[in-house]
Amino acid sequence: MNLLLLGPEDFRSAQLARIDGRRYRHLVEVLRAEPGRALRVGLLGGLLGEARVVAQTSEYIDLAVQLSETPPPPASITLLLALPRPKALRRIVQGITACGIKRLVLFNTARVDKSYWQSPLLEPAALHQQLLLGLEQARDTLLPEVLLRPRFRPFVEDDLPGLSANCLRIVAHPDSALPCPCNIAAPVTLAIGPEGGFIPFEIELLESQDFQAVHLGPRALRVETVVPALLGRLLKL
Amino acid sequence: MNLLLLGPEDFRSAQLARIDGRRYRHLVEVLRAEPGRALRVGLLGGLLGEARVVAQTSEYIDLAVQLSETPPPPASITLLLALPRPKALRRIVQGITACGIKRLVLFNTARVDKSYWQSPLLEPAALHQQLLLGLEQARDTLLPEVLLRPRFRPFVEDDLPGLSANCLRIVAHPDSALPCPCNIAAPVTLAIGPEGGFIPFEIELLESQDFQAVHLGPRALRVETVVPALLGRLLKL
Asked: Which residue has better confidence, A196 or A115?
């Protein structure tokens, strides 16, 4: 936890927040918080700043909070990701959030195992928890929007034009002859398929929506590797 | 397993290999191998090709092997990585191998927990197993070399000049004002610190060896995310 995220409900007055539960235990047991100690904090959806421990009991900590800095700028990338296997989903969602992605669409394809859509990790509260962990990691306060699209064709035909308006549209596809570009200043909508790849019909449908297929070299990579590799490549620094 | 890796000891004649043990069970239980079935194979350190199941018992499978293709070209990046926590090491070593890195140096810094050096994952047989899994993932046959350097200063002063000769030398450091470059055709030696970052003395020592500090944006990322992000960015496609 590189950042303690606060919500409006934590505040007892304009600059005094009270923390209990999971965050209290983390503060005491891992970060060794004690009266006088300063912590980096952020208001969910708002500013970053510093807090000082002003009181501590066996159940809660009171913090004097000063919020002053804006969170880091979002990555201007919308990520469309074929739903990964549940074992990988948690880490991937955290990593994507930490990278500054503010819109993530998890969608279905022919090679996504149907059982993946039953994962309890897709429930809103479980996803929210992973998003918070990603924000805490990256010292950010702005929650990404996560959309679930369990039907490929309506997603591409009906949602994608709006989701990718005014964006460079690219789809990662190992068979493409075009290398993935890098350091892109324009907004990007990036589509990444399942580990078995898109089927030809899916690539054709994406191409009909002006998505350009690009490759990241000749190697078959796990989705945990390919997602940060493509984001790191596309990111405008 | 996207590739079945064979060793010279698997061959009973020039083109006939016999597979038992872990790989036999994977072939039968996961890949549903049966007589007549074709598989992608590679000879460790050698060529890629195809094999056909010509006999199957309850203990082994015999394969008729045709090797003809060269493995994918190596990434021309030497990766110097502060030893990660053991929980992350396994996935990171697999991912680095899959990305085509052929020389990985795991080194110590002030913010690497000393206990990490006791991890059983650092034993040669355990590391070798992770390297094989990375090669199988990426359909490659060329094992990376892995060097362990538990003392920072002798590593930087004595080993680094040779390891980074004729390379672009860069070190990932969030405080740098210089963005990480991308799509680099020249050989690169890339140094990545621990999650807490390098201490100033360490950055100065690396800079004294002509390493240039670069950043990947304002966000604090986990090592599992930052390693593929930097590799994906630097890779020449």
From this structure: A115
* pTM for this prediction: 0.95
Please report the domains of chain B, with CATH numbers, ordered by start residue. Answer: 4-69 (2.40.240.20), 77-234 (3.40.1280.10)
| Angstroms from B179 CA to nearest CA on chain A | 6
Show the tokens assigned to A194: 């399942």
Closest chain A CA to residue B196 = A2
- Answer whether residue B191 shows pLDDT above 90: yes
Listed by number, the residues of chain A in 30-69 with a beta carbon closer than 8 Å to a beta carbon of chain B are: none
Cβ contact (<8 Å) for A139 and B219?
yes
Contacts of A224 in chain B (CB under 8 A): 91, 95, 224, 228
For residue B35, count CB atoms less than 10 angstroms from its CB and return exposed for 0-12, middle for 13-18, buried for 19 or more: exposed
The confidence score (pLDDT) of residue B30 equals 86
In B, residues 130-149, which contact A (CB 8 Å cutoff)?
137-140
Q: What is the pLDDT of residues B65-98, one digit of tens each?
A: 999 999 999 999 999 999 999 989 999 999 999 9
Whether A60 and A68 have beta carbons less than 8 Å apart is answered as no
